[in-house]
C-alpha cells in the first residue's frame, strides 16, 4: 500500500510539472517523452513545494494535501487543454534499438545508484539540515512552524536554507503517512534518473551523433563523487545534486534559446532558473550567472519585454524568501563576512592559496576521475570549433560559477582553507552535470559528420 | 564546377583526418593523465584503490536500513539496539513545555553528532547543549534555550550525572542518562563533580 501512496505522491508532482511544461514550452518544440517526464518532475517539485510553503500558513494536514492535489490536477488539465487535450507526436517515446538500449543502460545506472544508496547512510547535512525539516513539516501537518526558525537550540539546522528539498520529502511523507529516512534517499534516485534523462535529451538535441548520449551516461560513472562516495552525491541526501539537475535543465534550455533563437523558450528557462534559489542558497549565484548570460542575448536583440519571463520567477522566489526570513528571524549565524572593498583588500592574500586548492580539488582523481581534465579539453574544443552559442554558454555556465564559488572563500569568516576543503567538493557537484553535457557536446566526432554533410551539398549541385 | 567539387571534397577529407587525429590525441592525453595522476600510479593499484574506496568502504559503513536508517547509523556509539526508537520512546515521556539540556564532555565530532541526532529525535522539545571542558577545552554552551525558559530535563552523554540526580535518572544504554533537572541551576554546575 505504501508504494502505491508513494507513487500517487510522485505522480501528482509529475502531473503538476507536466501541466506547467505543456503551458510553458513552445508548441512547435519537439520534446521527447523522457525529457518531458524529467522537466515535469523538476517543475512539479518546485510547484508542490512552493504551494506547500505558501498554503501551509493557512491550512495543514489533509486539507493542505487535498488543496495541493486539486491544484496539481487543475494545472495538468490546463496544460492538456492548451495542447487540445492530447499529446502530439512531438512527445515521442524512445525510437529504435539504440534509444531503448540507452534507456536500459540508464535504468541500470539508477539501479546501481539505488544499491549504493541502500548501503550508505545520509551525510550529516543530509539528515540534519535537510531531512530534519521534512520530518518537522510532516509532524506539523505539511508546513514548518514559525517557532522552528527562531529556535535558539537549533541554529545548526540552518533554518535560513530554502525549502524545496525538505518540503518535497515532506510531501512524500504526508502521502505515505510516516517519516522515513530511506524514503527520503529514494527521492534522490528520482533526481538522478531525471539527470540522466536530461543529459541524454540535451546531448541528442545539440549533437548529430547519438553515440554521444552514451558518453554522457558513462561520465556519471567516471566521477565517483556523484554516485559512489562523497558529500553532495546522490546517496548523501544533500541538496547539491538536485541543484545540479535544475541547473542542467536551465542551461540546456538557455543553450537551445541561443542556438534556435525561439523566444518561447525563455519562460521555461526562467521557471527552471527561478527554482535554483529555492533549492539551495548557492542557487542564487547560479541563477545570477544564468540571468547574466541570458541577458546578453536580450540586450543584443534590444527586446526588453523578453527580460520579464527570464528574471521574474527567480526574483519572486528570492524576494519572497528574503521577506519571509526577515519576518521569521532565523537563529543561525553568518558564515561569511560582509562583501566590502575593505575586506576584499585585507583578505586578497588568500587568493593564490584558494586558486591552488581549487586546482588540487579539480584534479582530485578519487572524487572526480578525469572529468575536469576532460572539461578543460572540451572547453578548448568548443572555443575553437563550435558555434557561437555553445562556445559561450557552456564554458561560461561551468567556469563562471566555479570562479564565483572560489572567490567567496576570500570572504569566509572561518579558516578559509578548512572551509574550502570541506565545502568546495560539494559546490563542484552543482556544475558537474553541465560539465558532462559540455564534454559530450564538444567531442569532435560530430564535426566529422558535419564535414560529410557539407561534402554532400556540392554533389547535388 | 568539378574542380571546386574536388577542392571541397579534399578539404572535408582533410578536416575529417584532422579531427580524428585530435580525437585520438585527446583520448591519449586523458588516459595518460589518468594513469599518471591516479594515486599509486599503476593500473592495478588504482583498481584496488577504487575497489576499496567504492565498494569495500561502503560495505563497512553499511547503514542498518529502515525508517531510522541514518539516525541508527549515527547513534552506533551508544551501543544499544534500535537506538533511534529507544531514544524516541524515552524522550516521548518528556513534556514539550520546558527545555532539555544535553550535557557532554569535550567538543569532539562524535559527541556533537550524538547531540544533534538526539535533538532531531526529540523534536518539538528544545534541546540545548553544554560541553563540559576539563583537559580538552573550556566549558561552553553553544546552543542554550532562550533566557527565562526553564530547563526541565537533562541528558548526560559519556558523563555521570551529579550524585543528587542519580536516584531519579534513567539509563539508556551504557553511555546515555536521562534525568529530571533540579530547580534553577546554572548550566556550568552540571559539569562539576
Question: N-to-C SSE series of chain B?
Answer: HHHHEHEEEHEE
The N- to C-terminal Cα distance of chain B equals 101 Å
Structure summary, number of beta strands of chain B:
6
The amount of beta strand of chain B, in percent, is: 15-25%
Measured distance between first and last alpha carbons of chain A: 66 Å
**Morphology call of chain A:** globular
Unreliable stretches of chain B: 39-45
Q: Main interface pair?
A: A-B, 54 and 56 residues
Q: How would the global form of chain B be characterised?
A: elongated
Low-confidence stretches of chain A: 446-461
Structural class of chain B comes to: alpha/beta
Strand arrangement across the biggest beta sheet of chain B: 3-2-1-4-6-5
Number of strands of chain A: 0
Q: What proportion of the residues of chain B is helical, as a percent range?
A: 40-55%
Order of helices and strands of chain A: HHHHHHHHHHHHHHHHHHHHH
Could you tell me the radius of gyration of chain B in angstroms?
30 Å
Q: Count helical runs of chain A.
A: 21
Care to give the gist of this entry?
The complex is a heterodimer of chains A (461) and B (193). Chain A has 461 residues and is an all-alpha fold. Helices cover 75% and strands 0% of the residues of chain A.
Report what the structure shows:
The complex is a heterodimer of chains A (461) and B (193). Chain A is mostly helical. Helices cover 75% and strands 0% of the residues of chain A. In chain A, helix 12 runs parallel beside helix 14. The longest helix of chain A is centred in the last third of the chain and has 27 residues, at 416-442. Chain A starts with a helix and ends with a helix. Chain B has 193 residues and is of the alpha/beta class. The N and C termini of chain B lie far apart (101 Å). In chain B, strands 3-2-1-4-6-5 form a six-stranded mixed beta sheet, with helices on one face. Chain B has six helices and six strands. Chains A and B meet through helix 4, helix 5, helix 8, helix 18 and helix 21 of A and helix 1, helix 2, helix 3, helix 5 and strand 2 of B.
Amino acid at each position: 500500500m505504501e508504494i502505491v501512496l508513494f507513487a500517487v505522491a510522485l505522480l501528482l508532482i509529475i502531473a503538476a510539472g507536466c501541466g506547467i511544461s505543456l503551458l510553458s514550452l513552445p508548441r512547435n518544440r519537439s520534446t521527447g517523452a523522457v525529457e518531458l517526464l524529467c522537466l515535469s518532475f523538476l517543475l512539479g517539485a518546485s510547484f508542490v513545494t512552493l504551494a506547500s510553503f505558501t498554503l501551509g500558513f493557512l491550512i495543514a494536514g489533509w486539507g493542505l494535501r487535498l488543496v495541493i492535489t486539486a491544484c496539481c490536477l487543475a494545472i495538468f488539465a490546463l496544460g492538456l487543454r492548451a495542447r487540445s487535450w492530447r499529446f502530439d507526436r512531438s512527445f515521442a517515446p524512445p525510437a529504435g534499438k539504440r534509444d531503448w538500449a540507452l534507456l536500459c543502460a540508464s535504468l541500470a545506472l539508477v539501479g546501481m545508484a539505488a544499491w549504493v544508496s541502500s548501503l550508505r547512510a545520509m551525510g550529516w547535512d543530509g539528515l540534519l539540515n535537510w531531512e530534519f525539516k521534512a520530518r518537522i513539516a510532516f509532524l506539523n501537518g505539511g508546513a514548518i512552524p514559525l517557532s522552528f526558525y527562531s529556535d535558539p537550540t537549533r541554529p545548526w539546522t540552518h533554518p535560513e536554507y530554502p525549502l524545496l528539498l525538505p518540503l518535497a520529502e515532506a510531501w512524500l511523507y504526508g502521502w505515505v503517512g510516516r517519516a522515513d529516512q530511506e524514503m527520503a534517499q529514494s527521492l534522490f534516485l528520482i533526481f538522478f534518473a531525471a539527470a540522466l534523462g536530461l543529459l541524454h535529451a540535451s546531448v541528442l538535441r545539440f549533437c548529430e551523433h547519438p553515440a554521444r548520449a552514451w558518453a554522457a551516461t558513462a561520465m556519471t560513472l567516471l566521477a565517483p563523487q556523484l554516485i559512489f562516495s562523497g558529500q553532495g552525491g546522490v546517496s548523501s541526501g544533500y541538496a547539491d545534486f538536485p541543484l545540479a539537475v535544475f541547473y542542467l535543465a536551465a542551461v540546456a534550455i538557455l543553450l537551445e534559446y541561443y542556438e534556435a533563437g525561439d523566444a518561447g523558450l525563455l519562460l521555461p528557462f526562467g521557471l527552471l532558473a527561478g527554482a535554483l534559489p529555492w533549492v539551495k542558497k548557492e542557487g542564487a549565484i547560479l541563477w545570477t550567472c544564468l540571468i547574466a548570460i541570458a541577458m546578453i542575448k536580450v540586450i543584443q536583440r534590444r527586446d526588453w519585454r523578453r527580460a520579464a519571463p527570464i528574471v521574474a520567477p527567480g526574483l519572486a522566489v528570492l524576494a519572497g524568501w528574503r521577506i519571509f526570513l526577515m519576518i521569521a528571524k532565523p537563529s543561525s549565524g553568518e558564515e561569511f563576512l560582509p562583501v566590502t572593498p575593505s575586506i576584499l583588500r585585507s583578505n586578497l592574500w588568500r587568493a593564490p592559496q584558494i586558486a591552488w586548492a581549487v586546482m588540487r580539488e579539480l584534479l582530485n582523481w578519487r572524487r572526480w576521475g578525469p572529468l575536469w581534465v576532460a572539461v578543460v579539453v572540451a572547453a578548448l574544443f568548443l572555443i575553437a570549433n563550435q558555434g557561437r552559442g555553445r562556445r559561450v554558454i557552456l564554458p561560461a555556465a561551468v567556469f563562471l560559477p566555479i570562479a564565483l564559488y572560489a572567490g567567496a572563500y576570500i570572504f569566509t569568516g572561518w579558516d578559509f582553507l578548512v572551509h574550502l576543503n570541506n565545502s568546495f567538493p560539494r559546490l563542484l557537484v552543482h556544475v558537474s552535470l553541465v560539465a558532462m553535457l559540455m564534454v559530450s557536446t564538444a567531442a569532435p566526432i560530430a564535426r566529422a559528420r558535419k564535414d560529410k554533410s557539407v561534402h554532400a551539398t556540392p554533389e547535388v549541385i | 564546377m568539378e574542380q571546386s567539387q574536388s577542392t571541397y571534397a579534399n578539404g572535408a577529407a582533410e578536416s575529417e583526418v584532422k579531427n580524428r587525429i585530435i580525437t585520438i590525441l585527446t583520448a591519449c592525453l586523458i588516459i595518460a593523465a589518468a594513469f599518471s595522476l591516479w594515486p599509486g600510479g599503476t593500473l592495478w593499484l588504482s583498481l584496488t584503490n577504487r575497489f576499496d574506496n567504492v565498494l569495500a568502504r561502503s560495505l563497512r559503513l553499511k547503514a542498518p536500513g529502515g525508517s531510522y536508517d541514518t539516525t541508527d547509523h549515527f547513534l552506533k556509539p551508544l551501543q544499544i539496539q534500535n537506538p533511534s526508537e529507544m531514544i524516541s520512546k524515552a524522550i516521548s515521556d518528556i513534556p514539550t513545555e520546558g527545555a532539555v539540556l544535553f550535557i557532554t564532555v569535550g567538543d569532539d565530532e562524535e559527541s556533537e553528532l550524538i547531540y544533534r541526532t538526539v535533538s532531531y529525535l526529540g523534536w518539538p522539545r528544545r534541546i540545548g547543549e553544554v560541553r563540559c571542558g576539563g583537559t580538552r577545552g573550556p566549558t561552553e554552551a553553544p546552543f542554550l534555550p532562550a533566557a527565562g525558559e526553564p530547563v526541565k530535563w537533562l541528558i548526560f552523554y559519556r558523563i555521570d550525572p551529579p550524585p543528587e540526580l542519580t536516584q531519579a535518572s534513567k539509563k539508556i544504554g551504557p553511555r546515555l542518562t536521562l534525568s529530571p533537572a533540579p530547580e534553577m541551576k546554572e548550566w556550568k554546575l552540571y559539569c562539576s563533580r
